[in-house]
């Protein structure tokens, strides 16, 4: 058994105003006066419940106590999901250990997240893993600052992340070092910016439908 790194309570990282958190760029949702705190769950104390304790103990045993402490920043159990928050320099060896020693054979994709009010941790990459052998699911999460948006690619461990990492790069700007062909996959090559970041303007292009011309979101009538 190993202790949970950095046990902390919920962390408030900012306040979101409106539905999308941006201003002056066409939020026509009608929720302009919505104000809510952006809260991240902190580290969870033991016992984690279910098979989560076994997974954490097995990973600590396979990595060794020193490497486990250096690699795993926080362990979070939230809404019946186990998330291992891993420091990005240790992502590849942790993923390989999870695959080879704990039989998490399948990576189901990569999701990007942007927290513009979380200094030095603005960009997150989230990897859902599944053990086909044991029918278990966990998540691995790493973060990087806007000023240095680099994360090691997991292509060498999980080749299925190929296009998922490209999509996350395209929409969030996370650079996956070691990816064999890190290019845009949805937006044109010369597109400026990354459309799924929270600070990306809500613009658009006019759409014609049945003879009517619908203006882009930033030119529509606002109801807030």
TrEMBL record:
GO cellular component, one term: plasma membrane
SUPFAM superfamilies per the UniProt record, alphabetical: Nqo5-like
Residues in NADH:ubiquinone oxidoreductase 30kDa subunit domain copies: 85-204
Record membrane topology: Peripheral membrane protein
Sorted UniProt keywords: Cell membrane, Membrane, NAD, Oxidoreductase, Quinone, Translocase, Transport
Pfam families in alphabetical order: Complex1_30kDa
Protein's UniProt keywords contain Transport: yes
Signal sequence, start to end: none
Catalysis: reaction(s): a quinone + NADH + 5 H(+)(in) = a quinol + NAD(+) + 4 H(+)(out)
Subcellular location: Cell membrane
This enzyme's EC code(s): 7.1.1.-
Catalytic class of the enzyme: translocase
GO molecular function, one term: NADH dehydrogenase (quinone) (non-electrogenic) activity
Keyword Ribonucleoprotein listed: no
HAMAP family given in the database record: NDH1_NuoC
Subunit structure: NDH-1 is composed of 14 different subunits. Subunits NuoB, C, D, E, F, and G constitute the peripheral sector of the complex.
Protein family per UniProt: Belongs to the complex I 30 kDa subunit family.
Task performed by this protein: NDH-1 shuttles electrons from NADH, via FMN and iron-sulfur (Fe-S) centers, to quinones in the respiratory chain. The immediate electron acceptor for the enzyme in this species is believed to be a menaquinone. Couples the redox reaction to proton translocation (for every two electrons transferred, four hydrogen ions are translocated across the cytoplasmic membrane), and thus conserves the redox energy in a proton gradient.
Protein name according to UniProt: NADH-quinone oxidoreductase subunit C
The species this protein was found in: Mycolicibacterium llatzerense
